[in-house]
Amino acid sequence: MKHLLTAAMPRDEAVALLDLAEDMHQIQEREVKKLPALRGRTVVNLFFEDSTRTRSSFEIAGKWLSADVINVSGKGSSASKGESLRDTGLTIAAMGVDGVVVRSGASGAPALLADWIGRPVVNAGDGTHEHPTQALLDAFALRRRIHGPDAARGKALDGVRVAIVGDIAHSRVARSNALLLPALGAEVTLVGPAALLPPAGADGSRLGVRATTDLDAVLAERPDALMLLRVQLERQAGRVSLSPAEYVTGWSLTDERLARIPGTRIMHPGPMNRGLELSSRAADDDASTVLEQVTAGVSVRMAVLYALLASDQGGSR
């Protein structure tokens, strides 16, 4: 694996990455959280968009693998002076770094960077396109909930029913999960207001999976997991006219809806808007995997950095 740019990957490769993340997960339970695997390697986290979970977990992942980690933000870099992504990337590569983790508001930016700099690149979110490590950590956390933490290794998500609810059209998280989860055998349904669903493809599906506007009908089917998404007002640019009250009525996981789905795992990639996408009770319920997803983010990102920088495997993604 030369890069991680997309969540579209064969089932066996996805399971292998999740299993590697299980190995990394054990590090979090140690008193001294260090492996020497990337000693002498340098990783740059190049973030042109704000982030708490993704940026921090990549930094922790690199440091726990003993890499030297450098954080560069768009606001504090020469990009704020008008420097192009290509020149920024080539400058960083010329300093001798071993890998780059990049988040950008421009869809396709990580793939371009990978072509330009000749170093392993990890897509940490690009516009409304993809967020592959988020999909991997979602699968990791869900697999552990479904199979149990001691029996998850080697397993996929065959027959697991996942409903992804909210602003699907603007969500790179939804897009990556719609690619990865079906590859692992899960049945995915997209749910949201018509204005927040992506266009239908030639086969009538959206992102290649089933889609509906009726959340209550989906809840009546008792999905195994419900993934709530943040309404991304900053990406809508005034094109969507939907009041908070309308959204809550139709698509929020309210206390009343929560009571109808005992046993369904409640997921959210964060940041959460309590009272809009879901109630506080739903966010804090025993069925919630929200904090488990955050923990999984470190394990999965350790696995990705290890696979890219500590192995001699060929190929690219």
TrEMBL record:
An individual GO BP term: amino acid metabolic process
Coiled-coil spans are: none
Identify its protein family.
Belongs to the aspartate/ornithine carbamoyltransferase superfamily. ATCase family.
HAMAP family per the UniProt record, alphabetical? Asp_carb_tr
GN (gene name): pyrB
Specify which residues bind L-aspartate according to the UniProt entry for this protein: K81, R172, R230
Function description: Catalyzes the condensation of carbamoyl phosphate and aspartate to form carbamoyl aspartate and inorganic phosphate, the committed step in the de novo pyrimidine nucleotide biosynthesis pathway.
Show where the Aspartate/ornithine carbamoyltransferase Asp/Orn-binding domain sits: 158-307
Tell me what this protein is called: Aspartate carbamoyltransferase
The Gene Ontology CC terms held by the record are:
cytosol
**Signal peptide span:** none
Q: Which GO molecular function annotation, any one, does this entry have?
A: aspartate carbamoyltransferase activity
Q: Which organism is it from?
A: Agrococcus carbonis
Q: Tell me the pathway.
A: Pyrimidine metabolism; UMP biosynthesis via de novo pathway; (S)-dihydroorotate from bicarbonate: step 2/3
Domain Aspartate/ornithine carbamoyltransferase carbamoyl-P binding intervals: 3-143
What Enzyme Commission number does this protein have? 2.1.3.2
InterPro entries according to UniProt = Asp/Orn_carbamoyltranf_P-bd, Asp/Orn_carbamoylTrfase, Asp/Orn_carbamoylTrfase_sf, Asp_carbamoyltransf, Asp_carbamoyltransf_Asp/Orn-bd
